[in-house]
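Q: What does the assembly look like in three dimensions?
Context provided by user:
Components: three
Sequences:
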Amino acid sequence: MKKTLKVFVFLVVVMSLALAACAPAATPAPAEPTAAPQTQPTEATKEEMPPTAVPTEAPKDPIKIGLNLPLTGALAFLGEGYKMGIVLAIEELGGAIQGHPIELYDADNKGTPTDSVNAVRQLVDVNQVQVMIGGGASSATLASMPIILEGETPSVDGSSTNPTIYNQIGVGGNPWLFRIGTDDLIMGQGYSDYIADRVKSVSFVGDDNQFGRGAGQVYVPLLPRSGAEVLSEDYFDPGTADYRPALTKIKSTGADAVLIVMTDQSCATFMRQFREVGLTQQVFARGGCTTGLFNENTKDDPKIGEGIIEFSFFMSGSDPDFADRFFKRYNQQVTSHRFAGYYAMYHTVAPAIEAVLADGKELTPANIRDAIAALDVDTAVGKIKFDDHNQAYTKGSLTTNKDGKQVFLDEVELKPIDHTGF
Amino acid sequence: MNISKQSLRPFILPIVLLVIMALLPLFNQSGFTLNVLINVVRWLIFALAFDLVAGHIGSVSLGQPIFYGIGAYLTAYLAGKLGLGWLGCMLVSAFFMALLALLAGLAFFRIRHVTFAIGTLGAAIVTQLVANSAEKLTGGALCTTGVPRPQLLLPFMESAIKISKPIQFYYLFLPFLILTLVVYLAVTKSRIGRAFTAVREDEVRASAVGIYPLRYKLVAFALSGALIGALGSWQAQYVTVICPSDMAQDITTSLLIMVFVGGAGRLSGVIIGGVIFSILPPFLQAVGSKYFQPAYQQILYGLILVGVMLYMPDGLDGLASRILRRFRGIRKEGV
Amino acid sequence: MPFQLEIFINHLLNGLTLGALYSLVTLGLVLTFSVIGIVNFAHGDLFMVAGYTLFLLLNMSIELPYVVIVALVILLTAFYAVVIERLAIHPIIEKSWRTHAITTIGLSIILQNAALAIFSADPRTTPTSLSNTVISPLGIRISVQRLIILVVAALVFAGIQVFVKHTKLGKTMRAISQNREMCQVVGINTRKIALITFALGGAITGLAAALITPLFSVYNSMGSMLTIKSLAAIVMGGMGQVNGAIYASMLMGMIESFFGGYVSFAYKDVVSFGVFVLVLFIRPTGLFGKKVGL
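A: Here is the predicted structure of the complete assembly.
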């Protein structure tokens, strides 16, 4: 028995090591650096700290930043994306802010409410972080809000697009949570008008998760008000779905256009099957249908994504310089979540901490919160400046695909909107 | 009544456990510790209720999260829309989930073994998918939010205490664990428990000696459903958000691990499994977050699971009692 | 909406391909289930690993023809299955199904998270030139890849019938699935047959993955739902009946296509699992559960 145990453990270790070592070497372009960002945070904090700290001075207190993100489970790609952006931001900051080294703490919320409560408890009580970055799964964000309030630690959220959150933060009762990404309602009004100006009827298709369903709740009632009929509304489990039955149905409704709300991954599969069935309608999208990752996943046939018009926020086209830096660092294309992670760290948390230090105040969570609330930072996607509901109105963007590349069409200014009833 | 040392033995472990759990917050009152303790209580209740069916009558139901989820959604409605108090919500949830369990049991106990397990798993998936799609009823994938937190009205007090601090939640929750342990022991150490064992070992022989298997299966299922329904109601009031993911398969997986790795059908096994596997994941994450990424923590978790199954066939509880026996140098049957 | 024949035929075709796809995935599982009596909760994850293998092979610096790649995926997946059998299944093969279930759930956790650690959470696409080539017989557009799945599925099922009924190995497997103890008594090495069955199941899973993933994408947690659907098909088909499981998979594909197409996609899985649960209530032995064994 003892011997078999040893053999088993040995084999498992060898196999996982071999796999881990082989994977990057065997996959040339896209997969190569995936293992790198994972180990990066510790490297960033461990190796890059010493050079930045001035050797003559005593080392300054570290800045502890907690990540409340889905790092395993079905939404892991969101959390990973955030982390890639955050790690790049920290590297660009030199691993420290005014000599205070940055330490990152992960807490995996698995995208679920219960685990989100556990994650925030860990970050606030065990790791005792001064500020948190979160986002991706609105339900996890909603469940974590009472704990954030109780733990009195500010949290910057990149992309929890559920409109309900708006009414609960800032003057809504929770002054600790800030959103730099706009929600579905704020984005939805303008885009519904845009679509209704161009077509008379729409078939709606979304990912069957908080993202797709949340958008559906906004667009399905808004589109008819703007003057476009919604002929069908369907949701699909992202990834494995065979979309052909849905596409056949869309074909039978004969809608002028299709509005798809999907992340980069499912959109590529959907559009591939869309072309297979031979549909030719105009495709409007919201999510990840014109991103670099989408084009990477359809590079074998650039016609798949040709002509999709997408409305989104944090798109590579709105900050091409950052998109280049991101690609250089990871050899991967930027997506909105990677973008959001970078902006939450580089343009929100870092300036707030600098402001606290510039005022000569202590780096307490409360001081950082006040500094975030007072931020007024100009970025490529507009000002990061929070209203009384802790909402920043970063710009949206309209993009399309041409010859397998994203083409930036237009910037869209987003404005506060009445949230009553959500 | 003749109280011998032997008959007291089953009560030692639960009492020690409860005393430790009641005293722990005196040493550490951080929100994290209390949250971990609350999770331990939650998982222990869940695992004990699961074990009543899986361990004692041998029908492994992979559908227990149904009672948890519906209990939670029911509470969101009762507390949020009708303004029912916390205890009322728990009782009503428990009642309806016992009823549901009886009905479901009548249908599902026609099948057995693997078929029963996979059939109940199918039912769990149907329930989760309905919760995900019935947006008007449950909020769908966007979840039901804003469940009110409990308010405690004590005698001689003007206004109710609003329960919001982890320590308040914890001490309000602990009696529920005591109740569950009492129910578990009362059922399994009595005549009913012996009937359960008879049904688990051999249904035909059980019915031959006048033990009607379906009746006992229904009793166990309804008890389990009631406990889990009340637990779901509790959880809804603690987290304030309920999602279809609260009925996800992960919960069943955790239950299987706790009960079968710990030792199914034995109180000591369920307690060992429940405590270890509800503390291990947050511990790995809190300590390990700087060193490993979460995926590696999960891999380690999986390795432990496979390792225990391969090398400790009678579970952690069996291992513990073997070690104990070796120390004492005597042979005794496990608790 | 008026009845349109073209749409109906399209739904029928979609149901067929979806059913073929589910049954290819189920086939690998039902073999091990029926012959060895293993409830393998890591089956879908083996499919996922095979999918990643395809991804790696397609992205190698040397470009191999697709047929060679498919063959390699089949061989490698059979090899993974053998490794899994030797390390984790073999030691517990005589234990109860609960032990099997928990061990394979553990395996599933390991595989899913190893894939997460190695490949990240971003789904990978594995398009082949065939998945983008569309033909349109009778005005119905279908990709060549889909057509191949239909044809291969039909061939594989025919092959399995012949194998089980007319080869010595197949007959032995059938005998074991019917009465294990008896076979051991007459001197059949059941453990060796278990290993062979696992390899065969792995090979079929590899084939399924190599054909199916080009239409979709590969990601670490894709296996869970596949496992559950396969298990449901097996139980619905009548515990361990290979043909029953295939028919049940086809039925699930059809339900999803027609119910989704004509009623609601949100509830298509509710209905297909609902039918599964109902079948159990009405016929606890499953749709085709009369005989014992293969």
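Follow-up: The longest strand of chain C covers residues 124-125.
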